[in-house]
Specification:
The structure is a single chain. It contains 18 helices and 11 strands. The chain is α/β, with parallel strands linked by helices. The strands form 2 sheets. It has a 7-stranded parallel sheet with strand order 4-3-2-1-5-6-7, with helices on both faces. The protein starts with a strand and ends with a helix. Bound molecules: nicotinamide-adenine-dinucleotide (NAD) and magnesium ion (MG).
């Protein structure tokens, strides 16, 4: 098989690091075409020296000049800004794109990869939440293959019948009754609402099972992450909200399940390490070593499950309401959440205010129509950010 050329959008992040770890184990299969970062120029330069991409992309012209100086004589092309991101995501030399930018900033380059018909390893769930219908229809038109990286959706994909995996059948017509997404419950699973009022950003980013970027770690603590994942599952697998369930499973060993009409439940298990779904999606339909240790079931001894509590974790309810209202509302939910999480991380609002900001923003703008173009999605996103920023100010500590 020829060596596959991979672009990694968001190479300096947590998913970026895990992807480079898997790729470096298989130089006979994969080479890096491009690495991108937003502001961490020094880290990107170090990754470039190690992984030798043809291209490196950063956020601004000033950062590109600095990167150019750091990489002088290395023979690596340097770009900056949204156009360069789209170019390295869609270049003809590229076989697969790891979409691992965090937040709404990931939409445009991921969509560029979709338009170019690339194999898309999709970690950036926010692009589906913002514009899922548009994104999936672009993929269908171009023949782009989407392989989910989010551990839950990768697990669901692995438990789907072969026809669904091949994109030739829909789960609804293939005997699937429902999808069960597992949730760890995050660091505050046992905290009361009163206790959650006082938690700090440091408490919120200390996830019990997974090591991740700051934004998704806070999303896990509010359980907005699971809400975004319910929307993501709807976009990827086409089932309605009523057939997408969430179960809290604190050990994070079962990554999700698919239930069939005959009562069978198929689950995917493994150690909580993102290199497993990344290796699966890189090599699909083959299997390659990911560096992840075998799961020791005897040592694990037990698996626990409980129903999620939407009283203490209102973000889960808000995301489901947004899914049922349509993609315009999901786009508003995502933007408001990004603003609220950033404000919490900057200590401008308390933890429980994140849900309040999202809820009031949805109340004002949740009637937005589903975006039919990227411009429309970006406009809804911008409007929701302005509204959410005002809601933050009204609640600032
Ligand atoms: P991270 O914060 O560790 O890394 C984010 C990356 O995006 C960095 O490389 C950063 O340079 C880049 N970036 C940030 N803002 C940007 C902008 N405005 N323009 C261009 N690039 C920008 O995040 P992460 O934990 O690696 O998560 C990345 C994505 O994967 C998120 O969408 C997250 O929801 C999803 N995801 C992550 C995990 C995980 O285990 N970390 C699991 C499932 C899904
Ligand atoms: Mg996940």
């Amino acid at each position: 098989m020829p060596v596959q050329a991979i672009t990694i959008l968001g190479a300096t992040g947590s998913i970026g690091a895990s992807t480079l770890d898997v790729i470096a184990r298989h130089p006979d299969r994969y080479r890096v075409h491009a690495l991108t970062a937003h502001t961490r120029v020094d880290e990107l330069a170090a990754l470039c020296r190690q992984h030798r991409p043809a291209w490196a992309v950063v956020g601004t012209a000033a950062d590109a000049r600095r990167l150019g100086a750091l990489l002088a004589g290395e023979g690596i092309e340097i770009g900056h800004g949204p156009q360069a991101l789209a170019a390295v995501a869609s270049a003809s030399a590229v076989d697969a794109v790891m979409a691992a930018i965090v937040g709404a900033a990931g939409l445009a380059p991921t969509l560029a990869a979709a338009r170019a018909g690339k194999r898309i390893l999709l970690a950036n769930k926010e692009s589906l939440v913002m514009a899922g219908e548009l994104f999936m229809s672009v993929c269908r038109a171009s023949g782009a293959r989407v392989l989910p990286i989010d551990s839950e959706h990768n697990a669901v994909f692995q438990c789907m019948p072969a026809g669904v995996q091949a994109g030739q059948a829909a789960p609804a017509g293939s005997g699937v009754r429902r999808i069960l997404l597992t949730a760890s419950g995050g660091p505050f699973r046992r905290r009361s609402l009163a206790e959650m009022h006082a938690v700090t950003p440091e408490d919120a980013v200390a996830h019990p099972n997974w090591s991740m970027g700051r934004k998704i770690s806070v999303d896990s603590a509010t359980m907005m992450n699971k809400g975004l994942e319910v929307i993501e599952a709807h976009c990827l697998f086409g089932l309605p909200s009523s057939r997408l369930d969430v179960v809290v499973h604190p050990q994070s060993v079962i990554h999700s399940l698919v239930e069939y009409h005959d009562g069978s439940m198929l689950a995917q298990l493994g150690n909580p390490d993102m290199r497993t779904p990344i290796a699966h999606a890189l090599a699909y339909p083959e299997r390659v070593d990911s560096g992840v240790a075998s799961l020791d079931l005897a040592q694990l001894a037990r698996l626990d499950f409980e129903a999620p509590d939407t009283q203490r974790f209102p973000c889960l309810r808000l995301a489901r309401e947004a899914l049922e209202a349509g993609t315009g509302a999901s786009c508003v939910l995502n933007a408001a959440n990004e603003i609220a999480v950033a404000a919490f991380l900057e200590r401008r609002i308390g933890f429980t205010r994140i849900a309040d900001v999202v809820e009031s923003t949805l109340q004002s703008l949740g009637g937005a129509a589903s975006p039919a173009s990227i411009e429309a999605a970006v406009e809804i996103d911008a409007q929701a950010r302005r509204r959410a920023a005002a809601e933050v100010l009204a609640r600032a500590a």
